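User: Sequence in, structure out. Go.
Assistant: Echoing your sequence, followed by the structure tokens.
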Amino acid sequence: MRYSKGVIDPATRDISITVNDGTDPISGASVVIGETTKTTNDSGVASFTVVTEGTVSATISKDGYTSKTESLSVDSTHTSFTVSLVAVTPTTVNISATVTSDGTTPIQGATVTLTDTTDSTKTFTGTSGSAGGCTLSNVTLGTYTVTAACEGYENYTGAEDLEVTAETDSLAIQMTAVTN
């Protein structure tokens, strides 16, 4: 089959790929078909011009999501595709702890410790700075006893164990000053 200059091969198509999380669009996702990479817009859409009819492989990725490779069957009636990515559930989180004496006055130098309730050898510790805050980094998901100690204050033990999930990002501790 021959085509004259300027005539588009009828075996090629423009396609669009919509990327979502199962519900909402994902903007900024990378979509790769062959040698061409596009980034999804605010509506989660990436468009490709003149993709050859037949089966094409599309690789979709974005930080925080599990990458996916899809085989897409492109023909005259199939030019729009939707791909759902699954958010990666973190296995660790960083927790910002704030230590105060009355809910507002920061305590500097308090040692905050999270101890796993099923494995007491697994602990995460931080020391509060001048603003009363510290970060407990790479805390694995699980259940922890919360304690804090600082000279001049009664030792603190949380009333309940702390359930650390992918959404856990902060911890407030209020310590009581030692009275003579």
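User: And one key feature?
Assistant: The mean pLDDT is 89.
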